[in-house]
Amino acid sequence: MLRFAPKSRPQTPVSHLRAASGDQSPGNNHDGIEQGPSLTATGESIRKKLSALERLDKLSRLRISSGEIKVVPSGPCKSGGKAEVVQAKFRKAFKFWEDKKLVAIKRLKYHKGLDEHRFSNEFVHEVELMAELSHDNIVRLIGFVEDLKNGKAWIILSWEPNGNVSEFLATGKWEIPERISLIQDTFDGLKYLHTRQVPICHGDLKSLNILVSSSYRAIITDFGSARAIRESEEGGAGEGSRPGANSDPSPEKDYSRIQVVATGNQLTLTGPAWSLRWAPPEVVNGSPQELPSDIWSAGWVCWEVMTNKLPFPELQRVPDITLKVVQGEVPSASEDEQLSQIVRLCSLMTNCWALDPGDRPSVSQCCDEVKWVPSLPPLGGVPSESKVVTSLLVLQMGRMHYAHARYEDATSLFQQVLRVTAEGEGQNENAAALYWLGNVSAAQCKYAEAEASYTQAQAMYARIGDDLGRANTLQGLGGVYHRQSKLVEAEASFTSAQVIFEALGDHQGGANTLCGLGHIYRVQSDYERAEESFTQAQEIYTRIGDGQGLANTLQGLGNVYRVQSKLAEAEERCNQARKIYTRIGDD
Q1: Quick one: pLDDT at residue 318?
Q2: Could you report the per-residue pLDDT of 332-350, keeping only the tens digit for each?
Q3: 515, 552 in Cβ contact below 8 A?
Q4: pTM of the entire structure?
Q5: For the domain with range 163-228+270-371, which CATH number is right: 3.40.30.10, 2.130.10.120, 1.10.510.10, 3.30.70.240?
């Protein structure tokens, strides 16, 4: 496996992209691709070739002259069975090379024996598909260089300086919230693909095809195996069709002829270009790639990001790995030290690895699950002496401990923020630490300490003009007053918080206060208003995908029904809440 040793963590000069085949070997031809024989001009190939060129002509705005591209001789280069990726400088016409910017060139390989039409059509397909994409977590297509009659097909992409996720994680020690941020980015990018008007199945999702940008966000790349998923006449997901299929037939699909090929130390499925270690069982068994196939692979991405391990790292022989994949054998996420700290993520990964594709969650459900896990983009490039930025990470780590009832660990981290941030600097971080200390104290029934922390935080938020912070502390105070049976004060705090949340358009905060008011009304025996508040909160939590809030609300509704002797309704709501608590790891 070719690697480029990083000079420093923020500027890791590693490869931009793995080739679609998944294998990797050193590439030393930086001045141009190795030219195969010219594409012969038979009548049939001319017709197909012209059709491909006509499709490219519709994307003329993206066409780039080879004279505008200069490969960096000393830059990273990685090569696979279908393409190689090199770093290059790109300048627009009539500009000096000093005005250039770095780009990545994916150069498709043409060689003797390769079907001419297939080569041209696969190139056009990838360009057409990428031309329609625009998202923060999807690699950006800059343009293409094409001379198909001589086997030249280059795709010009944005250069992401931190390499792929696997390489990036190997450059330093990353905390759990930083890793979670990369997972959230990946699901956001996948959601963009899966929820388009015509959904797109990526087809080769793995850490090697997820880059890390200069701002330390995850970027999905390599769309050589991607395909559009169109509805069949029967209403189900059809085989899928590639863009431009009406003007020129898509590359031949032969899902039954999937072969396992060993190249170097990478194991690859040929047919559709699937890397064996990440492939879902149904694809290995010959079924077409569909959206649930990406979800299976996304589960492995979570595993890789959290553990720094490839799928089945202990296995090297193709038959051994094939057997594991076909049988759907996956590791136990809860047995890993890092993953075991985040039960919610462990549960999601288990669901992603369901043997039946129909049992896997949708990408929207995946996003809803991971967005509530404390996270922060990796702090690469931030000076170690930056107390404010470091405090942001410590706060997220403290939140993670709090969410799993590790209150001593959480308290220690929140107090650390208060100690390391000097007076006059990092007031937002100080206020947040006080707020979370209030939450920890309230969870431990230390109400006097909780009230003191919330009050300090509220004063600090008011001083710096942070309305959201004020609303959160008012909500916290409402909960503390409720537990001390100070119902008038509790209702006033919740109501004040709700007004601020509504003004800010914060739906989750509004739902939290509705839930709090529901508890107050229940204690006051105002069951009609209690049920109304809980029901409104339930609708909001369901809409925004907050499982924790939804479970709390269902439990509150169950209690309202129970005191009214509506036992069937009470049992139903409590059972629903219990299932959610189990799924998200809240015991």
Answers
A1: 62
A2: 766 777 777 788 888 899 8
A3: yes
A4: 0.76
A5: 1.10.510.10
